[in-house]
Amino acid sequence: MPVKGLKTITSARNGVGAFILQCKRLDFHYCNFGGSSRGMLNFLTKDLAAFAREHPQIEIRVSPRPAKHPVIKGHYINGLEKAICVRNLEPSEIMKKTMILKEASGEKLKRTKKPVTSLNESVRGIWSPYHGDLRSV
Amino acid sequence: MKRLQLQRWSSTVLLPRARTNNRLHQQLYSTGSRLQSTASPVQSESSIPDDIEDASFQDPNVMRHIRRAHKRKMQLQYPSPPVEAATKSAKLAALHARLYLPSRLPLQTLARTLVDVSADHNPDFNNESLATLGHDLLSHYTSEHLICTYPRLPLSVTFAAMYAYVGPKTLSAISTEWGIENATVPGGEVDPGVLQFKRIDPGTDVNEVSQLESPRPYAAQKNWRMTVSSKTFYDNEFGDAMKGSAASGQGVTYEAARATFVRAVVGAIYLHAGRPAAKRFFEQHILSRHLNISELFNFSQPARDLARLCARENFEAPVAKIISETGRKSRSPVFVVGIFSGQDKLGEGAGPSLIEARERAALSALKGWYLYSPLNPRVPSSMEEEGAAPWKPAHIDLGEIVV
Amino acid sequence: MFSRSILRGFASELRFAAPSSISAAPLPQRACLHQTAWLRTTQQQSQSQPHSPNPETPLGATPRAQDTQPETQQGSKAPSTPTSTFNTITPQTRADVPIQKQPVAPTFDSPLEVTKSVMSNLPHLAGQSPHYVVAELHSRPYLLTAGDHVRLPFLMPKVKPGDILRFNRASAVGSRDFTLKGAPHVDERLFECRVRVTGTEAEPLRIKEKTKRRQRHTKTAKSKHRYTIMRVMDVRVKTPEELLEEGAVVVEDAEDTPKIEARS
After folding, report:
1. Is C56 on the interface with B (CB under 8 A)?
2. Tens digits of per-residue pLDDT, B63-105?
3. pTM value?
4. For this UniProt entry, which residues form the secretion signal (chain A) (predicted)?
5. Are A123 and C174 a contacting pair at CB < 8 A?
């Protein structure tokens, strides 16, 4: 057999063809008694339905968590989750926090220096010292 | 304190009057099987309490308990979730929206694609038929893409590329990237938005191929040579031995269940939204993934193969020449060797020894030949679109060399 | 009105009758019919529930980002696209922005002018894939190829995940052996570079201790910047035929026109 094939798998490039939002579930926890949940309760009754309608790709769960501060938890496709405590926040601020969770990629926060990361090989090839003419300095 | 016995508690506390007049029990047994009718799906919560109302419970809490218990009992009868549960699952609706599935594809079908054959043996309620269709579509679209884009690709590399695009491992990864979760155990009461399959027993050999079902003659002779061309005939699209369908009651692996699900989604899109939608889905989700085909080659003797190739194509015999070198007598020399056929340079490679550099040069020459790709290749299925330009025959190559 | 158990018995009989190995009884057509029969009545049910999404309402019909015609919806919210800048030019708010960082006004009032040398070399460039583009955003260069992941060093306003933007300012477009260098920029009608916004990311919280001499108080300054992440969908150079179809005009070479340079 002159040549054999090596088995690999293709790697994902979300957004090149189809785009899949990385946030798959948002959990809203509130307390019916606590004062820190007042904004959250307002948000749940007034704004959440519109948010859910705009983002059908996110599963939304609302559950009470008595005697605790209100929390929003985002669950992501890579299996990680992010939680933001929204105690004493106004509904508009809670909406901002929800948008942060919605737009996040789910990855752990990292400090990166290069703006572009690529899977492709270098288009023009890697420079080689053994090729090309000698240039006078 | 004595523990309450649940069974006793439920019958004595929850259903005191139902037991006395025994209507609920009658209703349960008489219409229990009707609730899953496929012919007429008028089947909502309102149909259950019709008869319970007659029992004239005043307390709404008790009523709610009864309804819940009733519903749960209904659900537990079936191996997979009932069809009407699909419209109530938030997970399923989110999945539908996340994949931007066409609105013509109903949630009920999407729920059905999530039920593996190992969870529900009834072919009307599992995804086997959809997966069979989707599997054929995926193989067809991938193979025509590969053959038209790289007409000179050797068959073994085509098999590997097919495996990379639509192999079970890739499809399983795709389903994970869609956010699919597994049900721990399949059942009627499970949320229809999670993947339902029965896991294979630990210790089972997953690579075992049953000799009886293999169409290949002498399949029992494990160490006999199998030619690549016999693989096109006897084996599946990845060049692997075909496995028969799993026996009933047997579980499947995580990977196999997820691959079946992705295939079933493609099949469902084809059935409900038509061919263009299925092809667009394939291009967006499968073809858009990254694969470097030049990494799939594994040559054993590239110099010999190149000589055979040049002889077949009536090129001059390949000659290796040193282009440049440095540090021949040092610890780390570098030779740059080019392979020439007459005046044309076929390939070039650098290595720490002359032999190694020549091998690499021959390898790059062979890859340059095999990875030829015509400008703007068209696939045969593009002719199915409306207003397609007239078909020009695609480039067909002689095939790989025979050594 | 058949019960499911009756159907099951029927199906099992069918299976005994035709015990072929792969997918015995259910033909795809039957599967389809079976599901559509369900659909008819479940529609009425699901309409009564406000929260459960109805499959017939345009649930999947919001594929703002999924359509294959990017012309209709290419990032109308993006400040860098030519359409939006053309419509919403507000000179007062742009006064403090340096001239280099201001969005480019579209130059579509005159047909594209391509020099003869570029026209003769363009087929070589367009035919050799893959391509790269040095796209400029706020006068910073980004070397992009198709499929790259980009994390902009700032949070781009007014974009949502899934939006498609078209980068229209590039200083160079090229392939392995040829490069079209702009003077200083390549005309946006010569190439296409589309990116998809995939979300936002943040850096880990940075804490800087601020101290002053002879004071026991230390101030901690916190910062956690947010960045827009995007994915390059395609990088493409247009062929001469496409350019001529779009009404390009071939002109003579001059000193300050873009040139295609071959690798030495």
Report:
1. yes
2. 888 888 888 787 788 889 998 899 999 999 999 999 999 999 9
3. 0.79
4. none
5. yes
